[in-house]
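Example 3.2
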Amino acid sequence: MAYGLPYSRRRTNKRNKFFFFIVFYSCFRGGLSAFAAQPDFYDALVIKARNGDCQPILSWLHDEQERRRLSDREIADEIEINAWIGHDSDIAALWPHVAGRSLSVHTKLVVARAYRNLKQWQQALALFRQAGADHSSDEGEHSQYLMTLADAHFFKEALAQGTDFAQDSGSSRAYLTLSYIQKAAGLRQDAWQSATKAYSLDPHSKEAGFAYLDANDENRIIAGELVVVAHLPLSSMRQRQVELAQGAEYVRNALIPAQTEKNRFVLADRTLSYYQGLLLRYRKDPNAKGDLRVARIDRLGALLARYQMRELISEYEALKAEGPVPAYAQNWVATAYLYLHQPMKAAAIWKQIINLSDRESVNLYFTALVESGQLREAKALAAKLEQTVPYQTVIYGLPTRQDNDQWLDVQQMRVTLQQNQNRLSRARDQAEHLAGTASTNQELAVELAGVYIERGWPRKAEDTLKRAEYLDPSNIGLESQQGLDALDLQDWRKATLLTRDVIGRVPEEETAQRLSRALRIHKMMELDIEGDKGINSDSPVTGAHDFNLRALLYSMPLHYNWRIFAGVGYNNSHFEEGTGTDRVQIVGVEYRNRNNWISLEGDHHAYGHGDAYGGVLSGWHDFDDHWRLGGSLARLGEHIPLRALRNNVTGSTGALYVLWRENEKRQVRLDFADSRFSDSNNRQAYNLLAQQRIFSSARWLLDFTPSVSSSHNTVRNTFYYNPHQDLAILPSITAQEILYRRYEMQWSQTFEIGEGVYIERGYPNKAITSFSYGQNFQLNDTLAFGASVIWDKRPYDGERQRNLAISFNINYRF
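Structure, written as tokens:
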């Protein structure tokens, strides 16, 4: 026992000293004793924070901070947890109080990111540099530093270091960083290239995918986005936005003219199929109501590209009933209306939305104004463009000025206006100047040929079009114009071949359809009826209450050049010696080819003296665009008056004429006819008729039409009017007013007034007065009819007599 006691005392003394130290230290660091007493409690709070429940530990740390000085670990934890829940302002408020503490590099990086989030760039950069992020080998740290440099507008330094970073690393993150810097510096295209590179290096990276989508949006690039979003967790709204953007890109591409005719509808068909899928899904989604309307509006462009104009208009009307339609879609709608020959509606739309810098829309708007008859508005539009559109323009990157295509459009508008104002000589001068100064522009040559055709010069037009072939012999506009010209030249085979070609290639093209329609009408049967009825007349030539009718039915063309025809004629009038009637049955054949026309008909007459047979052989030949020679041989033809047949006097006639036609303004025709009657009379008749245009405008045509006629008969005192020798001089003025015109439909009225002199051998000279008024209707390109009232007062054997009659004509193709 004695031995153990001293030992026990020593142990007891040491224990007392240790207990005293613990008590003293606990008094000095009370918090530590609490923390040491409850280590599991703090760890539990940290675990809760990691699971998303951060408020308990933040509240505990706040309470502890009021009682004691927090440890470095607790400070680091508080900063980290605040960063988790985005309390950047709390981190920024705490940092000045703990900046001198020995905190880790990671903690400084967290604080730097908080300052960056608060856009306090200088503090963020300073902390990034303290943490060594400016030279860090860690790509994430260095990337954040470089992006902060860009945020602080140190673009030169950021671009240089970012470029080095991307080149040295070659990673997707490095290129994403460079893309961010370039975007901040305003280099959008460079940013897109870097984002594209980053995505190509790691296509499964969500960060790279989102950056690539954003860069595409910045540069209005849509291609490939659907492939990208397939790997990204997008919201349904964002998914629909990408789908709509992709659809809009499809529409824009479909509206671009295809490089080959065969593939011209490939993109349009794909686009319509794409939208069909979108519409099916969006209609089932109640949250996609707005996006459904956007898809329906954008789909209008695909319908336009596919030439489904009627469906486009129908869908537009439905959309319009639901709300306003944007201007870009209304432009498509106006184009569809114009294509469907509704220019008034098209012009009304363009008037509200037209952008004079949009060349294609301006040209279509001008066409709509012209085709709807709004020539004054069309002229004002052309004048406005002429003042604002320069002859040449500056193109960025080119050292010299370039010719302005829109200026040429304006000049073509001037030609079109002259044509529609019936000022064809001015239109020709302007078109020849344009085509002559731009010899490699085929469109101008085709336009010039159109002016030539309108002036009645199809051969000159043919030469012009032939010379233009070397530029593009298969051009649709060229071939269509050549086909129309071939129809004017009666070159039916050529017209048929050209029509088959253009319709087989592009049946939807309007120029091809116009040619096809013209050829189809040429191939129709034709009914031609003309007649006149005397109302108040008793002249020795026509008799009283005369009625004349001739109706012919032509077959469809046979072997291109041939047609057979049959018809009837009826002539009736009352004379002093009784009523004269001639009933005629007609059958014949017609031959038409280039430069020639020949008709051979056989007639059966019944005029009260048994059956009689007659016939007519007539024809003409064109030497060029100006000269025509024609003639006829007839038995019981039109030169034998009904009164002669009433008295059983028959006859035959040989006629010849020469026509010189300079253009639509001026022409002269000289006729000569020699008739041999069965009563031994020989009549020779001469007629000179001229036409000179005095005035022309869009609605009015005014012509001076003088005529001089003379006849000589060898036998006197016949039953029919037979002056020994006479001469009639009748200058006249003819005016035509276009009351309505829309495409092939036209309604016009004609006035003609003449005052002249009639000279008959053996009788005093007396005046001739004539007046006529008529209206003509062309309902379409297959039906035309008209009627005129004719009044004249002229002498017969020295006595002036009044004549009042009506005439009518109908031409119908079916």
